[in-house]
Structures are given as C-alpha cells and as structure tokens.
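pasting for the record
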Amino acid sequence: MEETSRKSLITAIEIVLLLVILYIIAVFLTGYLESIEGEVIATVLNAPQLLI
C-alpha cells in the first residue's frame, strides 16, 4: 500500500515538474520571439532611411 502511494506521489511530482518546465520554455520562447519581432519591425522601419 505504501509503495503504491509513494510511486503515485513520485509520478505526480514528475508531471508537475514537466508542466513547470514546459511553461518556462513557452514563456521564454514567447519573449524571445517577441523581441525578435520587435527587432525585425525596427529594421524594416529603418531600412528606407538606410536606402536614402
């Protein structure tokens, strides 16, 4: 009985850790993509000035 509850507890902890890691990766990627997008927009807006 105790062994089973311990295994289920470990499984629950693993699932929570996996979700936390996925969440952190998602937040990091979102911020990274937004910063790239901002840089691309700035570059495109500055491009006409570079051509002139």
